Amino acid sequence: MAHSKKKTAARAAFEGKSNLTVEDAIKLVKSQATAKFDETVEIALNLGVDPRHADQMVRGVVTLPAGTGKDVRVAVFARGPKADEAKAAGADIVGAEDLMETIQSGKIEFDRCIATPDMMPLVGRLGKILGPRNLMPNPKVGTVTMDVKSAVEAAKGGEVQFKAEKAGVVHAGIGKVSFDEDKLIQNLRAFVDAVSRAKPAGAKGTYMKKVSISSTMGPGVSVDVVSATAN
C-alpha cells in the first residue's frame, strides 16, 4: 500500500507540469526518485524523422562529460595482439569463434560490442541477434576499429550510442539520480547537442519535436527544447 501512495505522490508532483527548463526538470526528477536503488535518469527525444528511410536515419555517439554512472560491460571480437590489447584496456569478454557461439546460444552478457575490421565477416553472421539490440559493431560510431584500446576505454568512460527507433524516438541514460544537478544538466545538453548535430539530410520540418526526461521508476516530464539546446 505504501508503494502505491508513493507512486501517487510522485505523479501528483508532476501534475500539470510540462515544458520545464532543464534545471527545473532535473530538480523535479531527482526529488521524486524514491526507489531503493540509484535510478538512471533517462532522456527521450521525439524527432521529426522516419528512420525507415535511409536519408532520415539518426545515429551517433557522444561522450557524456560527467560519465554515465553505469558499469558498461564490453565484448570485443579480436585475435592475437589485438585481443591482448582489448584485455589490457579492460574489456570484459574477448574472443572470436568462441564468442560468436556464446552469442548464438543466447548468452549476451555485455552492453557494447567492438570488433576489429577483419572480424566483421564473423560478426556479420550475428546481425539478426545483435542488430535489434543495437549491439552490432559499426564503423560510423567507432566500434569497428583497429584502435581497440581507445574504443574500449571510450565505452567504459561515459560514451553513449544513440539510434532512432521506428517512431523517430531516440532514448538513452544520461546519468544517475545521485549525480549533482549540474552534472546531469551538462550530460543532458551534451546528448541533445549530439543528436542535433546528427540531423540527417532527409529531415523535413521540425527536427526536434519534444524532449522529456524521467527516472527509471518515475513519471516523465517534458523539457523546453530551447532550454535543452542552450549551452
Automatic annotation (TrEMBL):
Origin species: Paracoccus nototheniae
Cross-referenced Gene3D superfamilies: 3.30.190.20, 3.40.50.790
Listed PANTHER family: 54S RIBOSOMAL PROTEIN L1, MITOCHONDRIAL, LARGE RIBOSOMAL SUBUNIT PROTEIN UL1M
SUPFAM superfamilies: Ribosomal protein L1
Protein name in UniProt: Large ribosomal subunit protein uL1
Classification lineage: Bacteria, Pseudomonadati, Pseudomonadota, Alphaproteobacteria, Rhodobacterales
Primary role: Binds directly to 23S rRNA. The L1 stalk is quite mobile in the ribosome, and is involved in E site tRNA release. Protein L1 is also a translational repressor protein, it controls the translation of the L11 operon by binding to its mRNA.
InterPro entries for the chain: Ribosom_uL1_bac-type (IPR005878), Ribosomal_uL1 (IPR002143), Ribosomal_uL1-like (IPR023674), Ribosomal_uL1/biogenesis (IPR028364), Ribosomal_uL1_3-a/b-sand (IPR016095), Ribosomal_uL1_CS (IPR023673)
Entries under HAMAP family matching the protein: Ribosomal_uL1_B (MF_01318_B)
Family under the similarity heading: Belongs to the universal ribosomal protein uL1 family.
Highest taxon listed in the record's lineage: Bacteria
Pfam families the record matches: Ribosomal_L1
Subunit structure: Part of the 50S ribosomal subunit.
Keywords annotated in UniProt: Repressor, Ribonucleoprotein, Ribosomal protein, RNA-binding, rRNA-binding, Translation regulation, tRNA-binding
GO cellular component: ribosome
